[in-house]
């Protein structure tokens, strides 16, 4: 099957970034992009620029914070890390996601049963 | 997290972002650059790309960085706010770069806004400021009411009845008109101050604050009550050096001892102005029918004006039941908001002036709009380029409006200055007595209301003149504009139509103003050519308070009169000396009379006409001609037969074809015992004088020799009004002031002289308010004419410039300059004529409101309209002629090369 690279939904990207930061600790934008690329095994293709839009949004809501630091190759970079509030939000969103995906999964299975 | 909270956080982040936007821009750029570099390095390492290819691939993978930055800005800061700031800076640059245009627009606006600020500050002080009393909305004046109008004067018996029979008022008071003034003798200099006799309720009604001592009580406000006085804070400080022990002390007021019991708080202003308040001590059983008191009341908080009026009507019916003979058949009583009494006389004129400056502002707006339209044509390419770069229409409109706003706010600030300084300069040159503006307009201040008004006018102006050009400038077809070779390709048909419409409107409004001004000027001339019936040249006048017990009988007055006549008459350069109740042009009392031997016209009287007590030389001083019989002589004194003079108007009205000489008048019979007069024989007829303003026809007057006035009337007179002295001099009257004043003072036993004026000044003051209005409207009309002329000129000059090429072709094909000139002038004139026609119709509708301001000219006077129409058309054709001449001088060769 030819897997078309699906566009990443806005809210999904936020969730993915939060999860990434929770799992790996402080990261800069490039690192986050790499991690998502790696985890999604190239299924999800994103304009890496949108990562930054997402980061800004998360910052505005106070779910992550940013701090200037030095990257592994000794360059100045902005490191993002998840806040307490961000962790709470992640928990909430995760539950939400599971619930919704469960529902959608059931609906889709239902459709499939009828077709078969 | 709630949606609301989430929004709030975003907003807070925006505020932070806005404040730190430059640093954040830089940081973000850095972050993106880093990211791109890292990506590119990865491509080089992992896929062995060249540096250029890797950079390109990195950009592809990253996506549109510009869009991202825009997104970020939108998220992190207030884009519109930033844009607004940008607009302001841009507008400033644009306007700075065309100083000629900006200066013209700003000065035009400043003049118009300034005129509006000036007039509004007067309107504000006179009409809008609340009266300076606590809860001023609850204050009402109690008036006699007739079907045609109300009179703010009542008699003592009416006041007594109204006080007893109205429950709607918290407090009620009667007081006199501040009368002749009170002589403060003793101390280092005699001084005359104004005093009001007021009933005890006065201080409650006006909420007068007290600094020292106490106010007088109802018990003290009884006939035969004690001589007590309350004085103003100003008098206490000025005359008594703010002496805290003054209360309880006795001072002499007009020769009689009074105990000062209280000092009012600073800032208390009475109307009429006064410095001393004495108990009215009116007799509740009085039968005095003289209507020489004012009455005012403070309504209870829950009472409405309508209820107060109804209560007054009922009270007046009660009065009629009690005293059926003392009330006219169609008389009633009413309550009128106190503020209306202060300003009702000046309101129409002020509103007309406000309307007039409004027109000036509109004309100025039209002019600036025209300027902007012309400029917008020149800026079409600039705007088109901005639009093609992605600026939305709204963005461009807001940019253009910002420019307008900058112009109008600068104009407004300048106008505020011009208006304020100009108004005070005008008032200094031409003092006018308007209520509540203070001496030379000292109380006209730039309060928040005036500032707000100016700001609003400026904003309104900006929208008015800025919106049409902004919208029409952005309506253009972008492609067409960009494809055209140059800026001079000309505005579309529609734009010229807009501009023509503006010029027509301007013309119409200018015509309205000019008609108004012409009517005022005609009135001014008419008043100057009126023959007042007296000669005021070389006459010096002054007032003196003959108050106090010494002047309660006529003999006291006659004695002083004789002394003054003698002493002042002896001053070299003095031709004649007279004393009287009143000067010509200043009005006076009226009294009912019966013609002896004739059946009464109504009730027991033949009529009720003006009554003047004058001394023998009065007619000589004012050069009032004797038409028949003789005038008074010094022998017409208390001991001789009672005589009277009448004027021509009275002779005509009551003795149409008969000879009035020898007839007898019984004046004021039955009014009150103390006014009782013997029948008087008419010994002469004198010429008419205009006594109630130059614009009022002479009224019938009877004259009585001063020495023969009944004692009761003398006493009343001297309590109510000052006595006047009039001196005819052979030289300029002011050169003798010092000597005359000194002699008058000496002859009267040291009484103060007040209000020294030449009779010419008295005449001038009687028309000052009208003259001031005339001057203002004339100034406004002149400005309007100038602006309208500039408008026509601007439009035609622009049209000629636009059509240079066409004109060149015409000329090349053989059109002669004369024809070209005519064509252009005709185009300008066509607009002017349409404007004039519309203006004439509008003016016919509007000048009606000026009916009360004009004299001897109809508000639709055809000659005024014709003259103004011709003047305006002539100015317009002149304004069109200048560009027309330029058009006719176009060199075809140059014109054809011209793009």
How does this structure look, described?
The complex is a heterodimer of chains A (116) and B (899). Chain A is elongated and about 60 Å long. Helices cover 61% and strands 14% of the residues of chain A. Residues 1-7 of chain A have low confidence and may be disordered. Chain A has a single domain (10-115), classed as Orthogonal Bundle (Arc Repressor Mutant, subunit A), CATH 1.10.10. A three-stranded antiparallel sheet of chain A has the order 1-3-2. Chain A has helices spanning 10-24, 29-39, 48-60, 84-115, and strands at residues 27-28, 64-70, 76-82. Chain A is α+β, with helices and mostly antiparallel strands. Chain B is built from 27 helices and 24 strands. In chain B, the strands form five sheets. In chain B, strands 6, 7, 8, 9, 10 and 11 form a six-stranded mixed sheet that branches. Chain B has a six-stranded mixed barrel with strand order 16-17-22-19-21-20. Chain B is elongated. The model of chain B is unreliable at 485-493 (pLDDT under 50). The interface between A and B is medium-sized, with 21 and 25 residues.
């Amino acid at each position: 099957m030819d897997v078309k690279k699906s566009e990443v939904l806005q809210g999904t990207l936020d969730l993915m970034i939060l999860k990434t930061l929770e799992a790996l600790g402080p990261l800069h934008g490039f690192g986050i992009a790499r991690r998502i690329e790696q985890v999604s095994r190239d299924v999800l293709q994103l304009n890496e620029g949108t990562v930054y839009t997402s980061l800004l949004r998360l910052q505005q809501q106070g779910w992550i914070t940013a701090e200037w630091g030095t990257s592994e190759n000794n360059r100045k970079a902005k490191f993002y890390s998840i806040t307490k509030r961000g962790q709470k939000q992640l928990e909430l969103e995760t539950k939400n996601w599971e619930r919704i995906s469960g529902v959608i999964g059931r609906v889709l299975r239902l459709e499939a049963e009828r077709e078969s | 997290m709630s949606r609301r909270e989430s929004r709030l956080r975003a907003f807070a982040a925006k505020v932070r972002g806005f404040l730190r936007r430059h640093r954040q821009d830089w940081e973000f750029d850095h972050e993106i650059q880093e990211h791109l570099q890292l990506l590119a390095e990865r491509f080089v390492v992992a896929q062995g790309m060249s540096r250029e290819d890797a950079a390109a691939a990195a950009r592809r993978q990253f996506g549109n960085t510009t869009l991202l930055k825009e997104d970020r800005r939108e998220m992190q800061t207030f884009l519109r706010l930033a844009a607004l700031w940008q607009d302001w800076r841009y507008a400033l640059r644009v306007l700075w770069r065309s100083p000629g245009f900006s200066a013209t627009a700003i000065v035009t606006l400043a003049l118009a806004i300034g005129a509006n600020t000036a007039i509004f500050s007067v309107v504000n002080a006179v009409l809008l400021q609340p009266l300076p009393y606590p809860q001023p909305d609850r204050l009402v004046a109690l008036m006699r009411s007739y079907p045609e109008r109300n009179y703010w004067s009542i008699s003592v018996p009416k006041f007594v009845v109204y006080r007893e029979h109205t429950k709607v008022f918290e407090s009620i008071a009667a007081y006199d008109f501040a009368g002749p003034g009170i002589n403060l003798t003793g101390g280092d200099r005699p001084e005359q101050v104004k005093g009001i006799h007021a009933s005890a309720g006065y201080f409650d009604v006006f909420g007068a604050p007290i600094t020292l001592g106490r106010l007088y009580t109802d018990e003290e406000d009884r006939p035969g009550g004690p001589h007590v006085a309350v004085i103003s804070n100003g008098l206490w400080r000025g005359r008594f050096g703010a002496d805290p022990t003054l209360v309880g002390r006795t001072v002499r007021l007009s020769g009689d001892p009074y105990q000062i019991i209280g000092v009012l708080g600073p800032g208390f202003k009475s109307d009429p102005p006064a410095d001393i308040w004495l108990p009215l001590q009116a007799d509740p059983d009085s039968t005095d029918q003289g209507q020489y008191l004012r009455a005012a009341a403070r309504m209870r908080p829950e009472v409405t004006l309508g209820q107060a009026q109804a209560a007054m009507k009922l009270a007046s019916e009660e009065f009629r039941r009690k005293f059926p003979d003392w009330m006219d058949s169609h008389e009633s009583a009413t309550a009128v908001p106190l503020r209306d009494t202060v300003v009702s006389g000046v309101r129409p004129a002020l509103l007309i002036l406000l309307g007039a400056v409004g027109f000036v502002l509109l004309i100025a707006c039209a002019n600036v709009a025209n300027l902007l339209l012309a400029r917008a044509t020149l800026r079409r390419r600039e705007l088109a380029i901005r639009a093609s770069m992605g600026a939305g229409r709204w963005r461009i409109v807001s940019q253009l409006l910002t420019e307008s706003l900058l112009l109008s706010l600068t104009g407004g600030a300048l106008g505020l200055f011009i208006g304020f300084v100009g108004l005070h300069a005008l008032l200094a040159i031409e003092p006018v007595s308007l209520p509540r503006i203070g001496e030379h307009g000292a109380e006209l201040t730039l309060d928040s209301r005036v500032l707000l008004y100016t700001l609003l006018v400026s904003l309104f102006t900006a929208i008015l003149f800025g919106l049409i050009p902004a919208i029409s400038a952005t309506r253009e077809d972008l492609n067409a504009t960009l494809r055209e070779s140059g800026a001079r390709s000309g505005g579309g048909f529609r734009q010229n139509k807009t501009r023509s419409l503006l010029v027509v409107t301007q013309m119409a409004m200018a015509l309205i103003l000019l008609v108004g001004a012409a009517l005022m000027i005609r009135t001014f001339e008419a008043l100057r050519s009126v023959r007042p019936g007296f000669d005021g040249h070389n006459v010096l006048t002054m007032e003196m308070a003959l108050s106090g017990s010494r002047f309660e009988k006529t003999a006291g007055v006659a004695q002083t009169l004789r002394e003054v006549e003698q002493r002042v008459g002896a001053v070299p350069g003095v031709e004649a000396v007279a004393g009287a109740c009143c000067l010509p042009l200043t009005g006076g009392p009226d009294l009912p009379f019966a013609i002896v031997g004739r059946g009464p016209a109504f009730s027991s009287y033949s009529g009720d006409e003006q009554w003047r007590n004058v001394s023998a030389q009065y007619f000589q001083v004012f050069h009032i001609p004797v038409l028949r019989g003789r005038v008074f002589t010094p022998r017409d004194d208390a001991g001789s037969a009672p005589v009277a003079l009448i004027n021509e108007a009275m002779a005509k009205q009551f003795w149409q074809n008969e000879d009035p000489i020898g007839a007898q008048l019984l004046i004021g019979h039955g009014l009150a015992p103390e006014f009782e007069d013997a029948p008087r024989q008419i010994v002469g007829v004198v010429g008419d004088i205009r006594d109630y303003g130059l614009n009022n026809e002479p009224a019938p007057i009877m004259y009585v020799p001063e020495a023969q006035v009944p004692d009761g009337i003398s006493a009343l007179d001297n309590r109510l009004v000052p006595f006047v002295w009039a001196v005819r001099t052979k030289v300029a009257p002011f050169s003798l002031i010092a000597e005359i004043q000194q002699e008058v003072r000496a002859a009267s036993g040291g009484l103060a002289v007040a209000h020294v004026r030449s009779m010419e000044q008295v005449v001038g003051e009687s028309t000052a308010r009208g003259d001031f209005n005339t001057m203002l409207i004339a100034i406004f009309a002149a400005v309007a004419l100038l602006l309208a002329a500039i408008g026509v000129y601007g439009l035609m000059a622009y049209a000629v410039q636009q059509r240079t090429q066409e004109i060149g072709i015409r000329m090349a094909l053989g059109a002669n300059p004369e024809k070209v000139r005519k064509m252009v002038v005709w185009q300008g004139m066509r607009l002017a004529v349409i404007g004039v026609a519309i203006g004439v119709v509008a003016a016919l509708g509007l000048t009606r409101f000026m009916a009360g301001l004009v004299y001897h000219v109809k508000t639709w006077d055809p000659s005024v309209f014709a003259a103004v129409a011709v003047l305006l058309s002539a100015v317009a054709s002149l304004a069109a002629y200048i560009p027309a001449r330029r058009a006719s001088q176009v060199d075809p060769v140059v014109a054809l090369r011209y793009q």
